Amino acid sequence: MKKNYLEVAKFEFLKTIKKKSFWLATLFLPIFIGVIGLISGLSSVDAAKKMENPISFTKIYIYDPENVIRSAFLVSPFEATQDLDAAQAVVKQDSSTILVKLSANYYQDLTFDLYYRKDADFIGTASMPTVINALVKQSAIADIQNPGVINILNGTSTTTSYTYDDNGKLVKEGFEKYLLPIASLVIFFMAVFISSSFLLQSVSAEKENRMIETILSIVDKKSLMFGKMIGLMGVMFVQLSTWLVLGLGIYKVVMGKFSLPIPIDFTNIDLSLLPLNIFLILMGFLFFAAIMTGTGAVGTGAEDSRNLSSIFIILSIFPIYLMQLLITDPNGTIATVLSYFPFTSFMVLLIRNSFGALPLPELILGIFTSVVYVVAAMYIAMKLFELGCLMYNRRPSLKEVLGYMNIKPFKK
Amino acid sequence: MAKYSIKIDHFSKSFGEVKAVKDLSFEVNDGEVFAFLGTNGSGKTTTIRCLLKIYQADEGNLLINGKEYSEELNQIIGYLPEERGLYRDVSVIDILTYTARLRGIDSDDAMKRSLAYLDMVGLILHKDKQISQLSSGMQQKVQLGTALIHNPEILILDEPFKGLDPINRQLFVDILKEKGKKGATILYSTHVIDEAQKMADRLLIIKDGNRLEYGSVNEVRARHGSKSIFIEFSGKAPVEKNELYSVIITNKTAEIIPNKDITEEKILENLLKQGVKLVSFRLDYPSLNQVFVDIMK
């Protein structure tokens, strides 16, 4: 009997994952992202191929009064022309031709104009400036004798950054610096805004269909509430695992098919930040799960509860609008203040910790406040649940809520 | 303390400024069928919810088998709430086994009991259907199943006949009678006073949270005025009211309530004068329905 909350948890877990709508919602997002990624990947490959061979034109007329481009480079489809009017007349009629008119004062102003029909190949016209610039550059380099200078002019320098960590260890900087914050934020969002919404649905539906009183006559309110939370946390893990497996699958497929331009060195990810991130995600889930339970219980139905919960969701996603500021100045006043405001604290602490920007005293304070906020949210949710779960067809007033929580002067 | 009993002692409950129940006391004895009567808003549901700790009582003791309600008592209590419903997207068998499991019954036994119940009420072929796929009558049977699945010794039913079609109502009555015969203690609230007179051993009538009547059905009836005259007739019905009596007519039967100091002989004489053909004529206390109406006036 003492393990009734586990029975509730099991029921809630199975009830949710047996639903087709759950799997549709779970599979839709990664599949959608995968399909979009595949389409954009294929498009990129196609575009890259076109960029590699951008000369889709049958004739490219070069009008070059200063002879900037070496004539040796002007092989088909390039053709030098002195008769601008004749070349323009051809281009007007034929979309597979293009006219490049270099300025009469090119060495000073470095400008050239392109003329083509409006239905000419988009990629070809878009890549033409690059092609002409390359021709101009190669023509200029051809006059230089020093191979070192030629090498410099032909290439661009590559950069590698190294940073010293707190222990003086040298760490190579790369894209992986952003991997942990991005992954943590994605998981946080999914856990908080998708998985905790199952709790809202569960409580409001149970109230709406009047099953709640039957259940409350068997289990106490705490067992019911915590059972639901545990069960739906299980749902969250199933959902996250599904996304992880699908995400890795999609990553493998994409990496196999297309080469990712950003090399990731997984060994450079600072795993020491992970435990606090996991803790903050878990606390964030419990906090918002409690909020959703409370709003589910006081709403008159699923629709009403959703409307109520949107207030808290807006408050909690507020840091997204300040993301740039949080990344560039993770220890600034705004980041610090938002780290201790209940609805934003979990996300802001998560971002700051992911960048390793959380000083030890703040880290300890952050853990403490997170626990306090979760306990407070649980208490309030419990009270709202007690007050609202059997209040059919109407919401409790704020006065009733405050009075129920024994807050003076609303105390009965 | 009797084995399966309920005792409410000086119980009060308020919601804000509204006093829902005021200093209410009554007892339901072991094996007794006890009717809890009152109009809407009289405090019946509040009392039942406080008894089951769904609400917290402000004052008084609400005891089942001498103890305050706890989850341990779930195995012997079956509860049918007034505001009832079921998960719409869960199968019939899953709901029954879930409620059984919550009451501490192991999975195999929960499944056996659920199937046996569904067989008894003719729903075995619908066991895998979702609740939303069932008719309201079928849903009512499943709902009753959630209260009976663990074969409880104490049944607490809040308006059990509310919203029932005639067939299900008879089914519920038969099941309750059967449970009563087997010695279960039954506390039920109802508006169906006729049914209470037939089924209940004792009763309580409350109004605005106050106790108005309490005792056996016949004691309560006896406390309310002189005896009524119950007749069966054929043909012409008696006039509804005259200087001797007032009457409640139901088809070919009638309950005649004599005015003060009017004897049954005078009533009989008057009826015969009216040309009423009497099939039977007997004296009895006023019906519970009449008592209820009188009290609530």
TrEMBL record, chain A:
Membrane topology of this protein: Multi-pass membrane protein
Annotated TM spans: 21-42, 178-200, 230-254, 274-298, 310-327, 333-351, 363-382
Subcellular location, record wording: Membrane
Domain ABC-2 type transporter transmembrane: from-to ranges: 20-378
Keyword Membrane on entry: yes
Gene Ontology terms, MF aspect: ABC-type transporter activity
GO CC entries: membrane
Keywords of this entry: Membrane, Transmembrane, Transmembrane helix
Coiled-coil ranges (or none): none
Name of the molecule in the record: ABC-2 type transporter transmembrane domain-containing protein
From TrEMBL, chain B:
Any GO molecular function: ATP hydrolysis activity
Keyword DNA damage carried by entry: no
Top-level lineage group: Bacteria
Keywords assigned by UniProt, alphabetized: ATP-binding, Nucleotide-binding, Transport
Record domain ABC transporter: where: 6-233
InterPro entries: AAA+_ATPase, ABC_transporter-like_ATP-bd, ABC_transporter-like_CS, ABC_transporter_ATP-binding, DrrA1/2-like_C, P-loop_NTPase
Family per similarity comment: Belongs to the ABC transporter superfamily.
PANTHER family linked to this entry: ABC TRANSPORTER ATP-BINDING PROTEIN, ABC TRANSPORTER ATP-BINDING PROTEIN NATA
Protein's recorded name: ABC transporter related protein
Species in which this protein is naturally found: candidate division WS6 bacterium GW2011_GWC1_36_11
